[in-house]
Amino acid sequence: MEILVCIKQVPDDSVNIKMNPATNAPDLDIATPIVNAFDTYALEMATRLKEAIGDSTITVVSVGPDKAKDAIKTCLAVGASKGYVVKADATDTISTADALAKAVAKIEEAEGVKFDIIFCGKESTDCASGQVGTMLAEDLDVPVVTNLVDIEKIDAGISAKQETEEGYNIIEVAMPCVVTVTKPEYEPRYPTIKSKMAARKIPIGELEIGDVVAPAVTVVANAEPPKKAAGVKINEETLEESMAMALGMMRDAKVL
Protein backbone atom coordinates (compact mmCIF):
# COMPACT_ATOMS: atom_id res chain seq x y z
CA MET A 1 0.00 0.00 0.00
CA GLU A 2 1.18 3.49 -0.85
CA ILE A 3 0.35 6.06 1.82
CA LEU A 4 0.84 9.83 1.68
CA VAL A 5 0.72 12.02 4.77
CA CYS A 6 0.34 15.78 4.30
CA ILE A 7 1.91 17.83 7.08
CA LYS A 8 2.38 21.48 7.96
CA GLN A 9 5.07 23.19 9.99
CA VAL A 10 3.44 25.55 12.49
CA PRO A 11 4.54 27.68 15.45
CA ASP A 12 4.56 25.86 18.78
CA ASP A 13 1.01 26.44 20.07
CA SER A 14 2.15 26.10 23.70
CA VAL A 15 3.84 29.52 23.39
CA ASN A 16 1.81 32.65 24.09
CA ILE A 17 2.09 34.60 20.83
CA LYS A 18 1.95 38.41 21.00
CA MET A 19 1.51 41.00 18.26
CA ASN A 20 4.60 42.70 16.88
CA PRO A 21 3.74 46.43 16.97
CA ALA A 22 6.27 47.18 14.23
CA THR A 23 4.62 44.84 11.72
CA ASN A 24 1.10 44.60 13.19
CA ALA A 25 1.39 40.84 12.77
CA PRO A 26 1.85 37.94 15.17
CA ASP A 27 5.44 37.70 16.41
CA LEU A 28 6.13 34.09 15.41
CA ASP A 29 9.89 34.35 15.94
CA ILE A 30 9.45 33.56 19.63
CA ALA A 31 7.87 30.16 18.86
CA THR A 32 9.83 27.13 17.66
CA PRO A 33 8.42 25.65 14.43
CA ILE A 34 7.01 22.14 14.98
CA VAL A 35 4.89 19.60 13.13
CA ASN A 36 1.20 20.46 13.39
CA ALA A 37 -0.32 18.37 16.20
CA PHE A 38 -3.15 16.87 14.14
CA ASP A 39 -0.65 15.93 11.43
CA THR A 40 1.35 13.96 14.00
CA TYR A 41 -1.84 12.04 14.81
CA ALA A 42 -2.35 11.41 11.09
CA LEU A 43 1.21 10.10 10.73
CA GLU A 44 0.84 7.87 13.78
CA MET A 45 -2.42 6.42 12.43
CA ALA A 46 -0.80 5.85 9.04
CA THR A 47 2.20 4.16 10.68
CA ARG A 48 -0.04 1.84 12.71
CA LEU A 49 -1.93 0.92 9.55
CA LYS A 50 1.37 0.20 7.81
CA GLU A 51 2.48 -2.01 10.69
CA ALA A 52 -0.85 -3.87 10.66
CA ILE A 53 -0.92 -4.72 6.96
CA GLY A 54 2.79 -4.72 6.07
CA ASP A 55 4.27 -4.13 2.61
CA SER A 56 3.51 -0.40 2.71
CA THR A 57 5.41 2.83 2.19
CA ILE A 58 4.66 6.16 3.86
CA THR A 59 5.63 9.36 2.07
CA VAL A 60 5.37 12.76 3.76
CA VAL A 61 4.79 16.01 1.88
CA SER A 62 4.67 19.61 3.08
CA VAL A 63 3.96 22.88 1.31
CA GLY A 64 6.28 25.50 2.70
CA PRO A 65 9.74 27.08 2.75
CA ASP A 66 13.02 25.20 2.89
CA LYS A 67 12.92 25.10 6.71
CA ALA A 68 9.89 22.81 6.45
CA LYS A 69 12.46 20.07 5.84
CA ASP A 70 13.04 20.04 9.61
CA ALA A 71 9.41 18.99 10.12
CA ILE A 72 9.74 16.34 7.43
CA LYS A 73 12.88 14.93 9.08
CA THR A 74 10.93 14.60 12.31
CA CYS A 75 8.33 12.55 10.45
CA LEU A 76 11.01 10.40 8.83
CA ALA A 77 12.18 9.49 12.34
CA VAL A 78 8.75 8.21 13.45
CA GLY A 79 7.40 6.12 10.59
CA ALA A 80 7.73 7.82 7.22
CA SER A 81 10.09 6.48 4.54
CA LYS A 82 10.25 9.36 2.06
CA GLY A 83 9.73 13.12 2.20
CA TYR A 84 9.07 16.00 -0.17
CA VAL A 85 8.82 19.75 0.34
CA VAL A 86 6.68 21.69 -2.13
CA LYS A 87 7.86 25.16 -3.08
CA ALA A 88 4.67 27.07 -3.90
CA ASP A 89 3.13 30.44 -3.16
CA ALA A 90 0.20 28.98 -1.23
CA THR A 91 -1.25 31.26 1.42
CA ASP A 92 -4.77 29.97 2.00
CA THR A 93 -6.66 26.67 1.97
CA ILE A 94 -7.60 26.84 -1.71
CA SER A 95 -4.08 27.45 -2.99
CA THR A 96 -2.62 24.94 -0.50
CA ALA A 97 -5.00 22.19 -1.62
CA ASP A 98 -4.20 22.96 -5.26
CA ALA A 99 -0.47 22.82 -4.53
CA LEU A 100 -0.87 19.47 -2.75
CA ALA A 101 -2.96 18.02 -5.59
CA LYS A 102 -0.28 18.97 -8.11
CA ALA A 103 2.40 17.60 -5.78
CA VAL A 104 0.56 14.27 -5.58
CA ALA A 105 0.70 13.95 -9.37
CA LYS A 106 4.41 14.83 -9.47
CA ILE A 107 5.35 12.43 -6.67
CA GLU A 108 3.36 9.60 -8.23
CA GLU A 109 5.10 10.22 -11.54
CA ALA A 110 8.55 10.44 -9.96
CA GLU A 111 8.12 7.34 -7.77
CA GLY A 112 6.09 5.31 -10.28
CA VAL A 113 3.30 4.68 -7.77
CA LYS A 114 -0.33 5.56 -7.10
CA PHE A 115 -1.29 6.60 -3.57
CA ASP A 116 -4.01 4.47 -2.01
CA ILE A 117 -4.68 6.67 1.03
CA ILE A 118 -3.81 10.30 1.70
CA PHE A 119 -3.82 11.28 5.36
CA CYS A 120 -4.26 14.88 6.58
CA GLY A 121 -4.69 16.33 10.04
CA LYS A 122 -8.24 17.61 10.52
CA GLU A 123 -6.90 21.18 10.86
CA SER A 124 -3.76 23.16 11.59
CA THR A 125 -3.21 24.75 14.98
CA ASP A 126 -2.24 28.11 13.48
CA CYS A 127 -5.19 28.79 11.13
CA ALA A 128 -7.60 26.00 12.16
CA SER A 129 -9.73 26.24 9.01
CA GLY A 130 -10.16 22.47 8.70
CA GLN A 131 -10.66 22.70 4.94
CA VAL A 132 -7.49 21.53 3.16
CA GLY A 133 -8.21 17.79 3.38
CA THR A 134 -11.69 18.01 1.88
CA MET A 135 -10.54 20.48 -0.79
CA LEU A 136 -7.67 18.16 -1.70
CA ALA A 137 -10.12 15.28 -2.13
CA GLU A 138 -12.25 17.47 -4.38
CA ASP A 139 -9.22 18.42 -6.49
CA LEU A 140 -8.22 14.75 -6.81
CA ASP A 141 -11.83 13.61 -7.40
CA VAL A 142 -11.64 10.91 -4.72
CA PRO A 143 -13.84 10.18 -1.66
CA VAL A 144 -13.02 11.70 1.71
CA VAL A 145 -13.77 10.73 5.31
CA THR A 146 -13.21 13.37 8.00
CA ASN A 147 -12.44 13.32 11.72
CA LEU A 148 -11.02 9.79 11.96
CA VAL A 149 -9.99 8.27 15.27
CA ASP A 150 -9.22 4.82 13.87
CA ILE A 151 -8.76 3.00 10.57
CA GLU A 152 -8.32 -0.54 9.30
CA LYS A 153 -7.86 -2.22 5.93
CA ILE A 154 -10.74 -4.29 4.57
CA ASP A 155 -11.13 -6.11 1.27
CA ALA A 156 -13.18 -3.34 -0.31
CA GLY A 157 -10.87 -0.56 0.86
CA ILE A 158 -10.79 0.84 4.39
CA SER A 159 -13.07 0.93 7.39
CA ALA A 160 -12.88 4.30 9.14
CA LYS A 161 -14.11 5.19 12.63
CA GLN A 162 -15.35 8.76 12.43
CA GLU A 163 -15.90 10.90 15.50
CA THR A 164 -19.08 13.02 15.58
CA GLU A 165 -20.78 15.19 18.19
CA GLU A 166 -23.24 12.35 18.86
CA GLY A 167 -20.76 9.47 18.94
CA TYR A 168 -19.04 7.51 16.17
CA ASN A 169 -19.75 6.38 12.63
CA ILE A 170 -18.13 3.37 10.96
CA ILE A 171 -17.65 4.22 7.30
CA GLU A 172 -16.36 1.91 4.58
CA VAL A 173 -14.79 3.62 1.58
CA ALA A 174 -12.97 2.46 -1.52
CA MET A 175 -9.42 3.50 -2.33
CA PRO A 176 -7.91 5.81 -3.41
CA CYS A 177 -9.28 8.19 -0.82
CA VAL A 178 -8.41 11.07 1.49
CA VAL A 179 -8.93 10.93 5.26
CA THR A 180 -8.58 13.65 7.88
CA VAL A 181 -7.57 12.71 11.42
CA THR A 182 -8.59 14.14 14.76
CA LYS A 183 -7.09 13.09 18.13
CA PRO A 184 -7.25 9.31 18.53
CA GLU A 185 -7.08 7.41 21.82
CA TYR A 186 -3.31 6.98 21.49
CA GLU A 187 -0.42 9.45 21.37
CA PRO A 188 2.16 9.81 18.58
CA ARG A 189 5.36 7.89 19.14
CA TYR A 190 8.64 9.63 19.97
CA PRO A 191 11.74 9.32 17.81
CA THR A 192 14.77 7.48 19.15
CA ILE A 193 18.36 8.60 18.76
CA LYS A 194 18.85 5.79 16.26
CA SER A 195 15.80 6.78 14.20
CA LYS A 196 16.85 10.44 14.24
CA MET A 197 20.29 9.54 12.92
CA ALA A 198 18.75 7.38 10.19
CA ALA A 199 16.31 10.15 9.22
CA ARG A 200 19.17 12.60 8.67
CA LYS A 201 20.55 10.37 5.93
CA ILE A 202 17.30 10.26 3.94
CA PRO A 203 17.28 12.85 1.13
CA ILE A 204 14.25 15.12 0.99
CA GLY A 205 12.92 15.84 -2.47
CA GLU A 206 12.05 19.38 -3.60
CA LEU A 207 9.11 19.99 -5.91
CA GLU A 208 8.69 23.06 -8.06
CA ILE A 209 5.11 22.97 -9.28
CA GLY A 210 4.75 26.40 -10.82
CA ASP A 211 1.63 28.49 -10.47
CA VAL A 212 -1.21 27.42 -8.19
CA VAL A 213 -4.75 28.69 -7.87
CA ALA A 214 -4.69 32.29 -6.73
CA PRO A 215 -5.48 32.74 -3.03
CA ALA A 216 -9.11 33.67 -2.46
CA VAL A 217 -8.59 34.99 1.07
CA THR A 218 -7.01 38.33 1.96
CA VAL A 219 -5.90 39.09 5.52
CA VAL A 220 -7.27 42.53 6.28
CA ALA A 221 -5.92 42.93 9.82
CA ASN A 222 -4.54 41.02 12.79
CA ALA A 223 -5.50 41.51 16.43
CA GLU A 224 -4.89 39.76 19.71
CA PRO A 225 -7.95 38.11 21.26
CA PRO A 226 -9.56 40.15 24.04
CA LYS A 227 -8.32 39.35 27.50
CA LYS A 228 -10.75 37.50 29.73
CA ALA A 229 -12.36 39.64 32.42
CA ALA A 230 -11.65 38.73 36.00
CA GLY A 231 -14.29 36.56 37.64
CA VAL A 232 -16.52 37.59 40.53
CA LYS A 233 -16.12 35.78 43.83
CA ILE A 234 -19.34 35.22 45.76
CA ASN A 235 -18.88 34.37 49.40
CA GLU A 236 -22.05 35.11 51.35
CA GLU A 237 -22.69 33.76 54.84
CA THR A 238 -24.91 30.92 53.64
CA LEU A 239 -25.15 28.80 50.48
CA GLU A 240 -28.70 30.05 49.89
CA GLU A 241 -27.57 33.69 49.98
CA SER A 242 -24.69 32.96 47.61
CA MET A 243 -27.04 31.20 45.16
CA ALA A 244 -29.52 34.08 45.33
CA MET A 245 -26.78 36.62 44.58
CA ALA A 246 -25.44 34.53 41.70
CA LEU A 247 -28.90 34.20 40.15
CA GLY A 248 -29.51 37.91 40.59
CA MET A 249 -26.27 38.76 38.80
CA MET A 250 -27.17 36.37 35.97
CA ARG A 251 -30.60 38.01 35.62
CA ASP A 252 -29.03 41.47 35.55
CA ALA A 253 -26.64 40.30 32.82
CA LYS A 254 -29.64 38.83 30.93
CA VAL A 255 -28.09 35.39 30.72
CA LEU A 256 -30.89 33.76 32.73
Question: Keyphrases for this structure?
Answer:
alpha/beta, 2 domains, Rossmann fold, 256 residues, 13 strands, single chain, 9-stranded mixed sheet, globular, 6 helices, two-stranded antiparallel ribbon
Please characterize this protein's 3D structure.
InterPro entries: ETF_a/b_N, ETF_b, ETF_beta_N, Rossmann-like_a/b/a_fold. It holds the Pfam family ETF. GO terms for molecular function: electron transfer activity. The chain is of the alpha/beta class. It has two domains: 207 residues, 3-Layer(aba) Sandwich (Rossmann fold); 31 residues, no CATH class. Helix content is 30%, strand content 27%. It is built from six helices and 13 strands. The strands form three sheets. The protein has a nine-stranded mixed beta sheet, with helices on both faces. β6, α2 and β7 form a beta-alpha-beta unit. The mean pLDDT is 93.
Provide the domain count: 2
Strand order of the largest sheet: 11-10-9-12-8-1-6-7-13
CATH topology of the largest domain, what is it called? Rossmann fold
Oligomeric state: single chain
For the record, what CATH class of the largest domain applies? Alpha Beta
